[in-house]
Specification:
Blueprint (H helix, E strand, L loop, with lengths): L1 H9 L10 H22 L1 H4 L2 H4 L4 H24 L4 H16 L19 H21 L13 H13 L1 H16 L5 H8 L3 H25 L1 H11 L14 H18 L3 H17 L18 H7 L17 H6 L24 H10 L3
């Protein structure tokens, strides 16, 4: 069983319909997330994010977990009974059974300390479940490259980045908050913050997006134009396929630097929690959607808003696209500063770093900026 699971995890390509592989993979994914969920229930002080746990509706989480266990258990049991991908489905069923034995969706949550070190297991579960359910479906409905499978080449590397960058969310938040307060605390002014807080909600959201994107534009441009910073950013550009998971490929040092610089003006201007929460949702959606394998251009709006088409060009190896399209939210910034792609083609042909010199594999990419002789 372990041999077959390892072969599946290391492989790539389309899952053959009718063999039970599709339902088996769905069952295994849900079973694995349920198992992680029960661990988060058992050890919330160490495995959940304080900012998230304060806003949870525990009963809703329990209901979602129960439904996922039923679906995973049902799919895996049917496959086992009809001899369809038995090895995969049997492992999924064992995970569901183990989750149930550990308490499943009924694990009680008692009082616990709120200031312990933690990893963001809950954030990883929610984001992976939400992103995969939404964007895999959207990519199948509006696929740009219709022959690109869900498990395309190098998906394992991007999943490793996704896992690590989500698990260390606590470290990232702590480090960025510390850096922002230490480096930019002097710039906070009560008058400016009061003016920002008095803005209408929609105006404040547009302002926070514009301010953060202005900073991100120049930070992103620096990653391309400063050789030392390109060593970090080349990891993100090494993805040869674009889909909902590709945006997760990001060196952790780049993540720390970018978040610190983008959060600085947000802290200095004093946006309200509601505005920041809305900004986080929009950023999260755009970061995934604009890397997705979807054929979306939005007509004339693409000159104002960053779309998948706009950002796909940024990841292209095509000569006219190199070091172009830096904005994350507002495409007009690139048109304003003269860095927008100009091409007669609708979509780029190839993705990745020109010369393909970044190695594949999470740990190799973690070391790459410090070992590359280029």
């Amino acid at each position: 069983m372990l041999k077959e699971l390892n072969e599946l995890a290391e492989g790539a390509g389309e899952l053959k319909p009718g063999s039970g592989l599709v339902t088996g993979v769905i069952a295994l994914a849900l079973a694995f997330l349920c198992f992680l969920g029960v661990l988060a229930f058992l050890f919330p002080e160490y495995l959940t994010t304080p900012e998230l746990r304060r806003s949870y509706n525990v009963e809703t989480v329990r209901t979602i977990m129960f439904i996922a266990m039923v679906v995973a258990g049902g799919l895996s049991l049917v496959n086992v009974l009809f001899n369809r991908s038995r090895w995969l489905s049997a492992f999924a069923f064992l995970l569901v059974a183990l989750t149930a034995l550990l308490g499943g969706h009924k694990v009680p949550v008692n009082d616990f300390a709120d200031n312990t070190p933690y990893i963001g297991l809950d954030w990883f579960i929610l984001d992976l479940l939400g992103s995969s359910l939404i964007f895999i479906f959207v990519e199948k409905l509006f696929a740009l490259r219709k022959d690109q499978p869900v498990f395309r080449p190098e998906w394992q590397t991007d999943l490793h980045h996704f896992i690590v960058n989500h698990m260390v969310v606590g470290f990232i938040l702590l480090a960025t908050n510390l850096l922002v307060h230490r480096l930019f605390g002097w710039a906070a002014a009560d008058g400016i913050q009061a003016w920002v807080r008095d803005l209408p909600f929609v105006a404040a959201v547009l302002l926070i997006l514009l301010v953060s994107d202005f900073v991100q534009y120049w930070t992103h441009r620096a990653y391309h134009e400063v050789p030392l910073l390109w060593r970090l950013h080349a990891v993100h550009h090494s993805a040869k396929s674009m889909d909902w998971l590709a945006g997760s490929r990001q060196h952790i040092l780049e993540l720390l630097i970018t978040r610190t610089l983008v959060l600085a003006p947000i802290f200095v201007l004093g946006f309200s929690k509601e505005v920041i929460d809305t900004y986080i949702v929009i950023v999260g959606f755009q970061a995934v959607f604009n890397h997705a394998n979807v054929s979306v251009r939005l007509g004339p709006l693409r000159y104002i808003i960053v779309t998948p088409n706009f950002h796909h060009w940024h990841h292209s190896q095509d000569k006219e696209a190199l070091d172009r399209n830096y904005a994350a939210h507002f495409a007009f910034l690139d048109y304003l500063f003269g860095t927008a792609v100009k091409s007669t083609k609708l979509w780029p042909e190839r993705y990745g770093v020109l010369g393909d010199y970044v190695p594949n594999g999470f740990f190799k990419q973690l070391k790459f900026p410090f070992t590359w002789k280029g």
